[in-house]
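Pair request: fold both.
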Amino acid sequence: MPPLLHFLLAFAFQVLIVSGSSLFHRDNDAARAFVTTSNGTFQLNGKYFRFYGTNAYWAHMTTDEEMDRIFHDIATIGIRIVRTWAFNDVSCKPKSGPYFQILKNGDATINEGVDGLQRLDKLVATADKYGIKLILTLTNNWNPDRPMPDSAAWSRRESSQELPRGYLANDYGGIDAYVRAFRPEGTHDLFYTDPTIIQAFSNYVRAIVTRYSQNPAVMAFELGNDLRCSSTLKGSSNCNPQIITRWAAEISKCIKEIDHKHLVTVGDSGFYCLDCPKLYANTSTRRQPALEGPSFDGSYGIDTDDLLAIPTIDFGSLQIAPEQIQLFPVLNDVDFATQAIGDGGKWIEIHSQTSIIHRKPEVVLQSGIVSQRDWDLFVPNDQVAPKHEQKEVPCRGVEDFQVDYSLTFWASAALNGNVDGVLESNWVQSLMRNRTTPLLRGSKRPWEKRVDLDWWKQHGGPPTAQNIKQFSADSLPINP
């Protein structure tokens, strides 16, 4: 290439970088402040704080350059809250890629190295650079067993039909990884009751919380994603909501003893146990004829009223994933999309009332619905392969306009109620190295890790931008 042409191309590239960066403005005062709660609302830097954000569980698996691009792009469209995994458990050291902890043969070893928690340090620093605050999730209810890690493909699972390590949200270890390591053949709920497992998890929690106890780039610590009595490992008949509530009280107390500046949430999907005895809640959501089925009878081992009433829990959580869970009984003669979107709105409305009862804010930690175009990429929480490979499961998914409508409808329900934050299920990103980026939405094949950002801008961008503006406009100054 002629030297002059090389120079002109390099100059043009720098202009593009500068012009792109100019779209982003960091609010330094807000970035330096901690998010707090008072009288059932979030507050930040002297204002009521409501937010519309996203999930990027995979962010620490990217390179430094990719990570910078991710958070730059997220900040540029106005998002200020991102939820991400602050755990990455493996049974032995992988051949490549980050990992945070080895769980094996009754022992837990935290990785403090450059391929360990230093990657999480980099993620927190990059988020702070762009004025983004993080919800750090400390474990996951879902971790289906996978091939033994000594297989040739373990490093990235690059065989033609295997998903790369870290591609799926359920491929970062979690509750079942602890049980397999400390109590082989044990039940899922031993995580909440076994003293050795509780100690191992508490040690990891202390390591993470201590690391970021003075860092305002962290909004909150989340005890665990979608906690339940069972997972791919079955739960015992002894598990009940009180067991998980006691565990949540113990772990959240541990966090608050180390760090009184950051908020703590449980991370559950918001299931109720309307008729259960309460450990902490003096008042709770009342039974109504419309509130029936597993989402309200404690079947999942969750009592969101009692969890929210724990003194060391600062805000409640709920999730909307229609393909993963049926929140309300199926209605006759109503199509899947119509019921799924409506059920999500009702779920938010019920939690708005729960927020009022307990005078604590609520957040939709993830919300989304799978489109028909993405149905062949959809992998349930308890599986390791896309649903289209399971012949007994018919193709579902919704139209693209219904995806857009669901996001807008749920955001409006939150804004009109008392749910102060909504996070979309997964951020997508383009221009990232094929071999390392574990993303989902927009990929042509689940093992190809490229994502088309233009598709997101076309189908996910308009409602997302609208929702961000609406939530930002609602952040009014606090009256003296």
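--- second member of the pair ---
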Amino acid sequence: MGLARVLQDLGLGEGSERSNGASACSVIRVLSEIQQRFAAEDSAKRGLLDSAAELLGSGEARWLFPECGSDLRAAYAELVGSVTEYAALPVCDTDSGSLPSSSYERIPAKAEAAGAALLALTEQLGGAVRSSDSAVSGSARSLIRTLGPSLCVFSITHLQDRPWTSEASRKRALELLTSTVTATSSGSVPELLCGQGGMLGPVLDVLRPELTKENWKRNEAMKHVFSWVLVQVGRPWLADYLDKVFPPSLLISDDYRTENKVLGVHCLHHIVLNVPAADLRHFNRAEVLYHAFFNHLYTSEAPLIQVVLPCLIDLIPVLEKPLVHTAVPRKPSRFDDVLRLILTHMEMEHKLALRRIYSSNLLLLIEKMGIGIARHLKRLERVIVGYLEVSDGAEEKARLIILEVLERTIQTAWPRMEYRMGVLAKSLLRFLVDIASEPLAPELRDQLLTRASRCLLLLDHCSRGRLRVLLKEVDSSCVSDSVLKCLESLTAPQDA
């Protein structure tokens, strides 16, 4: 009854008699009629969407998906295009690439209605794909390959928590994406994109016109859709699409707005981690990335520094040859350039957020460089001493990390540490005294004292026991019980 009523509402009542065994032209005629009315009647679009959802949900698979030809594929593609366009975001003509939230007030309701019609279609396609009727099954497979990229882009556009989505529209978008995955006989979104006959290439082709230098800011959603799709794809598939994902990522990262820079660098970092080094070096891509990231280090924006530094640290091994232990002196590398710049910024930085970011990434850099940090020990020592002297809040994140940096530095460059024992030991002792008197949580104080004591113990090993002798001369009446306990544990005789 639902299908007959819909056809009568469309003025196609004769189609109801064909609904149980119609030829392909009947469904094409119905789809074309809906498409024409949808394009002509702005005020009636919501009702047409409800009719389309009822039609697609109640029609029999044999009538909806007869033997597939170019006319049938075109009819469904035009309908899906019109439905997705109904919930499209307004065009942004500002240089910022964003609109006020009020511009998107009507989008969630439109997306939910459009999603309902598309969901009815994908559920029917999913059932038809598994049909025992080979003609219906083959037709459905052909249609889902044709419509899948547009369905994916639409659902991902309204899937994320953005100003143009609501809880209801996000739920409908997730249902649509899940139904699309099922209709393609895939087990997950990555399989949908990268499995046999995957849709990654077609999806990127749909996005490509929206991600050019002239257009990428006109639709605020497209950069987020691109980023979401990109991170679903890993090795070894991403390398095959490097030409399609590298330019948009670089374009987004080169914008003047911090949020776009962060998003672009996030995309580029995923590419660095999931594309073979040889492909990254091809056409000098890696060198271009290095200079782009290095220039970002001169900013004082914490969110950008937080994503740039890990990406840069992962990128440099692509450009540098592995360290070989030979008698030939090691030449300075890009690691040295980055470390030198980071230490310069750390010495002058007073913002707590940046101090924490620099500290955590300094640890990663030391782990990558190994003994190569030896030529930077003088400046590294100044930074460590300076950071130990300044508290950075109740959680003491920077000082916790800088103690770990010192510990790793001692372990890595231990042959050189005996000559720096005096400065570092004095700094650690002052740190112990300060921590014992500061109002900190007991667990945090114990953690700081333990890490500082471990560094002193490592320095003692590097000095072959000389530090322990010096620590025994500390006047116990001048320090607190907690500090005295640490010193006693360090100077206690050790078992042979």
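Observation on the second member. The radius of gyration is 31 Å.
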